[in-house]
Amino acid sequence: MEIKVLGPGCAKCSKTEKLIQEVIKETGVVAKVEKITDMMEIASYGVMGTPAVVIDKEVKCIGKVPKKEEIKIWLGQ
Amino acid sequence: MNFKSAGDNLNIGNKPGLLFFLCLLLGATALYVWWVVYNFLPTLSSWTTYDLLTIDRGSHLGASIEFFFYDTPKVMMLLFIVVFCVGILRSFFTPEKTRAFLSGKSEFAGNVLAALLGIITPFCSCSAVPLFIGFVTAGVPLGVTFSFLIAAPMVNEIALGLLYGLLGWKVAAIYLGTGLFIAITAGWVIGRLKLEGHVEDWVTQTNPATLSMEEEKMSWADRVTYGWDAVKEIIGRVWIYVILGIAVGAGIHGFVPEGVMASVMGKGSWWSVPLSVAIGIPMYSNAAGIIPVVEALLGKGAALGTVLAFMMSVIALSLPEMVILRKVLKPRLIATFIGVVACGILFVGYLFNLII
Question: Domain of B124?
Fold first, then answer.
């Protein structure tokens, strides 16, 4: 599973990445988390707000820090 | 998205049953308690200062401390209500909906709508670039996009809540009106100048993917949670600035002699408006820190127009935002953007010094 956190590096973006890492650790899902800070790349996903979460090329959430329960569902848990 | 939200279990909004009325009753009670405490604040601050801390009545220190103990809880309580209500209102809007609404609108009407939507669409300045690209590539005219980008930081719920609480509804209304006016006209002027060629080339070459994400269905319980999250997030971020701002304001209130600001920031000196805009542009502070200081300056004889101009240039134009926008705008367009907005602020400053 390939997880991408899109965001230029504000506090909310870091928090989103941290939460995803926590869920991965808790559930033991095998996933690669990558942070995308490049504006061109962020824009190419068509999102208009950050942080945004993309899992396997599918945009899951835009412009907010997701809740842990939501992340678990995205990871199929 | 297929996750089940908390609201689905409560059925709020779908079947207004007993639970709904209980919530309504609870909300009304909370509002009543809020109102009683709010009205009790002057008594409480005076009692804390003069009876609990036994500071002399009429002393400089006493005036400062009473000001601090009155303004801090007052501002916090007002922020709480305003941020919560605006949060609920915002849950009805997303940048995607706003964009769909704005694309294909005629120029002037588009500027007006963009400025209004700029106030209520959830937006954080760190996503200014993706938002700009999203708007422009979807066919929202450049000038209309700018109206949105100017209104979004300038007219915000924190500024309105603080202005209302500290300076009254008239000043808050003037700020809202003139902020919208600047966003609409500045955006319109930028549109007329035909500067589309000064957007960085890669922006127009970007072909953003179309999203297949479903619109999230929100129940009323979700919206209340959204408002509550906004309260936690915003107040958690700005409370320290509010306290610092009020502390500086309290110092000015108690120790700076009456009328001293009249010569520097008063109506008499024509240069005070451009000077405050020039000082305000590179400054980066949020509304929460700047407005308590502004209140104290007004109390010492500064003119409303000058102070308004200072506040707007601090909030609406900031160096970090320009650095972010430089990624998508060529230098000439950035300069035009700053210039046009600064002219609008100058106009507002002079206008209010003239009529009030």
Answer: 1-207+218-356
Question: CB pairs below 8 Å between A and B: how many?
Answer: 75
CB spacing of B131 vs A49 below 8 angstroms: yes
- Which residues have C-beta within 8 Å of that of residue B215, sequence separation ≥ 6? none
Q: What angle do CA B218, A19, B132 make, to 5 degrees?
A: 60
CA distance readout (Å), B167 to A62, B62, B76:
36, 21, 15
pTM, to two decimals: 0.83
Residues 5-64 of A with CB under 8 A from B: 7-8, 10, 12-13, 39-40, 42-50, 58-60, 62-63
Domain that holds residue A61: 2-74
| B295 membership: H or E segment, kind and range | helix B287-299
The per-residue pLDDT string of chain B (356 residues; one tens digit each, 9 = 90 and over) reads 344 444 444 444 455 578 888 888 988 998 899 999 988 888 888 888 888 888 888 888 888 888 888 888 888 888 898 899 889 998 898 888 899 889 888 889 999 999 999 988 887 777 888 889 889 888 899 999 999 999 988 888 888 888 888 888 888 999 999 999 999 999 999 999 998 889 888 887 777 777 766 667 788 888 888 899 889 988 888 888 888 888 888 888 888 877 776 777 777 778 889 988 888 888 777 777 888 888 888 888 888 899 889 989 988 888 888 888 888 999 999 999 999 999 999 999 999 888 87
Which SS3 state, helix, strand or coil, does residue B143 take?
A: helix
Domain with A43 in it: what CATH number? 3.40.30.10
**B105 alpha-carbon distance from chain centroid:** 26
Beta bridge partners of A59: A54
8 Å CB contact between A39 and B130? yes
Query: How many DSSP H helices and E strands does chain B contain?
Result: 17, 0
A73 touches chain B (CB under 8 A): yes
ipTM of the complex: 0.85
Residue identified by tokens 């928090």 is A15
- The set of catalytic residues of A is 10, 13
Structural domain count, chain B: 1
Domain count, chain A: 1
Q: How far apart are CA B242 and CA B224, in angstroms?
A: 25
Nearest to A44 among B124, B135, B209 (CB): B209
**Residue B73 within any structural domain of the chain:** yes
